[in-house]
Specification:
Layout (H helix, E strand, L loop, with lengths): L2 H22 L15 H22 L10 H28 L1 H16 L5 H21 L14
C-alpha cells in the first residue's frame, strides 16, 4: 500500500482496460449458436478494470498518512494465500470442461471463500451455489450463450 505505487498502478491498469475495450470491438459480435458474442466478456472486463482503476486513483488522492509496515509473518501468510488461490484457479481451469461450469465454479468459489475467511461454512456455500447457478441460468437460458453443462456421468 504505497501511495506512489498505487497511483501509477491505477494509471497502468486504466490503460490496459482501455486497450481491452478497444481491442474487443475488433472481435466479431456474434458466435455460432450463441446470442452473446465473444466480444462481450473482454469488453466487460475492460470496463470493470477502468472503473476499478479510477476508484484506486481516487483513493490515492485521499491518503492521509503512511500505512503501517506489515510484519513478515503477515506477508508470508498473504503470499501463501495468494499461491493457494492461484493453484485453485489453475485447477478450476483444468476441471471446467470435465465437471461443467456450475460444479467447478461452485467448488472454486467455496475453496476461495474458505481461504479468505476460515470458520464459516454456510454463508459461502449459499453464495457459491447462488452465484454459480445464477450466472449459468442468466448466461445460458436468458442470453442464449453457451457454457459447459453438467457432466454426463451425473445424468443431467
Amino acid at each position: 500500500m504505497n501511495k506512489t505505487f498505487d497511483r501509477y498502478g491505477s494509471i497502468i491498469f486504466a490503460i490496459i482496460g482501455v486497450f481491452f475495450i478497444v481491442e474487443s470491438t475488433k472481435i466479431s459480435t456474434s458466435a455460432y449458436g450463441s446470442q452473446v458474442g465473444p466480444n462481450i466478456f473482454p469488453m466487460g472486463l475492460g470496463i470493470l478494470l477502468v472503473l476499478l482503476s479510477l476508484r484506486l486513483f481516487y483513493e490515492t488522492l485521499r491518503y492521509t498518512e503512511a500505512p503501517k509496515k506489515e510484519t513478515g509473518t503477515y506477508q508470508t501468510y498473504q503470499t501463501k494465500r495468494f499461491v493457494l488461490i492461484l493453484l485453485c484457479t489453475i485447477l478450476y481451469a483444468i476441471l471446467l470442461e470435465s465437471l461443467g461450469y456450475v460444479i467447478s465454479t461452485f467448488l472454486f468459489l467455496l475453496a476461495c471463500f474458505n481461504l479468505i475467511e476460515k470458520g464459516k461454512w454456510w454463508p459461502p456455500v449459499i453464495v457459491a451455489a447462488a452465484f454459480s447457478g445464477g450466472v449459468y441460468f442468466v448466461y445460458v437460458d436468458l442470453l442464449q450463450g453457451t457454457l459447459p453443462g453438467f457432466p454426463t456421468w451425473l445424468g443431467f
